[in-house]
Amino acid sequence: MSRHTVSARVHGPLSRFAWFVLYLDILLIPLALAWGAIGPVESSVGGAVELSAGLVAFSALVVAVVLPARLPMLISAFGIETILTVHRFIALVAVVLVFVHLVAVLIFDPRHLSILAVWHTTRAARAAVTSTVALVLIVVLAMRRARLQPRYEGWRLVHNGLVAVVLATAWLHVWWLRHLVSHTLLAVWFVLSGVLVAGLAARRWIWLPIRARRYAYVVVSVRPVPGDGVTLVIQADRHPGLPFVAGQFVWLKIGSTPFVFEEHPFSIASTAEHPDRMEFTIKALGDFTELLVGLRPGRRVYLDGPYGGFTMSGLDSVPGFVLIAAGVGITPLLSMLRTMADREDRRPVRLIVSARRPQDLMLLPEVEEVRARLNLKVVEVVSEPGPGWTGETGRINHGVLSRCLPRRPHRLHYFLCGPQPMVTSVSHDLAALGVPLRRIHTERFGAV
Fold it and tell me: FAD-binding FR-type domain location, by residue (predicted)?
């Protein structure tokens, strides 16, 4: 397969700026249309606050839903961790604006608190109350999630259900008021926003599972690996495989149908040159890992993807790379190494891996398998070395990097994958060593 068969052409600042402008338009265009149609003369100060806060809140809800809708170009441009961070921020903005809108309505609407009496109010008001209550539940569940630590699939099911209620009832609230949609341009805008959200929902919950069924894989083997991990190897079931770029990830579904709700994101560890055979190494944790261990050869599994911009795509002229991982964060980096080896790419690479103990270092035998075909130097760092250890000790920090990096480190590109504290700390250390931020590529655990 050609190295350019799959290309993340949407990385770059220009693409990110275009996405930013698009989302800003979604946020502000309905407000501009409303003021153009209604005009400030027709609204009091209270009415202006009520209208502006409500419209921008609705637009923010639409943006918050579109962001995590698994659009490959968007994920490639920003990375899943940035998208989810912005998603949470925009959702918080929407909550604040809904609160401002509600307070303005209660103060300036002549019905005041009686508007909340859902048993004898208008259907538009009932929709608004339903949407607000569902939004409050989303906020409460999100705030208590870290403390209660519910099962992820159950939490996600409730979260997505509440989001659907919030958006549907907010849309109906605006439509049933008729005040705004009596103007043609605003009516067109709200119809298009409803079609957009419905289309994305249909794509996410209907089309993507159908696609996953068409590109099903079967289990070849499941084996334990050092570092308390499990490696899953799968083979394309009567198709050439899903093309991907080394460093990308997929959502993995195990069940009799791709429409099952439970799914988990995993980085691909195998070479991008042979997408018909994929490999994943997964840290042993929780019920899903036990399910993986119980898989038997021939069992069908389903993939949604590939996604992600944590790749070397577009870096053909870069003189070399430094790959830095903690624990199972080595998996996308192993895919990069295997792909470089298959493409006979002899540019210098330094792999720096860390773990608590030597026996916790993951996938080093797999790295050794491709080492002879690469210009590769491996540095192992452990925090509890034990007797006889001769490698680096402690954590990957400024001192370790100063000793391990080549001269003129600012010319290389860096790929960091691991827990968020490690990625953040090492990014700061690299910046202190003179590495430009645009050359530091990161992927953090726990983003999804």
Answer: 212-313
